[in-house]
Design brief:
Elements: H1 3-11, H2 13-38, H3 46-67, H4 72-80, H5 83-114, H6 127-157, H7 160-182
Helix pairs in contact: 2-3, 3-6, 4-5, 5-6
């Protein structure tokens, strides 16, 4: 495997792991529907595996969307503001996100560590399912710190040309993203 593929794998690992869990969910649900309607029986463990896999899909997708700044509620305010005001709001939002995701990380870690619940059919610990929350909030905290550092560096540069170039680049990315969505 060449370096570009390894770099792509490392940069998008949430999507790749989430894709595996989505494939597991899809295969198990299709298998369960087939056996229920055509063979007149079901496996008792399929729902547990499908739900557990889907939880991982959701939390990894959330972390990936945050990393790519694809959460509209977080990004809409910053897109409306010009230059320095945009950077100030970004920095404030990064700090708030660091605090919230840090608190969520802490509480999800406590919850996972204290969990003694097991699945009925497979007798599989829910810790493995719930650990998706811990990973997700860890990643969001890390990405928030990275975004904060980037915003501070840009703010300190005080270069209007750089701010204008960045705004133009953001606009071009938005146009490209939305035109891809339309097609």
């Amino acid at each position: 495997m060449d370096k570009s593929k390894l770099k792509n794998l490392a940069m998008n690992f949430e999507l790749y792991i989430g894709s595996v869990f989505l494939a597991i969910t899809t295969v198990i649900v299709i298998m369960n529907v087939f056996t229920r309607y055509f063979l007149k029986f079901t496996y008792h463990w399929t729902e547990e595996v499908a739900v557990g896999s889907f939880v991982w899909v959701i939390f990894l997708g959330f972390a990936s969307a945050f990393k790519k700044k694809g959460l509209i509620g977080v990004e809409i305010l910053t897109k409306l503001l010009p230059g320095k005001a945009k950077l100030i709001v970004e920095m404030i939002m990064c700090v708030v996100t660091i605090i919230i995701s840090g608190v969520m990380f802490y509480f999800s870690l406590i919850y996972v560590m204290g969990s003694t619940k097991i699945t009925p059919a497979l007798e599989f610990s829910y810790k493995y399912i719930y650990s998706a929350m811990v990973l997700s909030f860890t990643l969001i905290s890390i990405y928030s710190v990275i975004f904060l550092i980037q915003s501070i560096k840009t703010f300190r540069s005080n270069d209007p040309a750089e701010l204008a170039a960045e705004a133009a680049e953001d606009l071009a990315e938005d146009i490209e993203r939305y035109s891809d969505d339309i097609q």
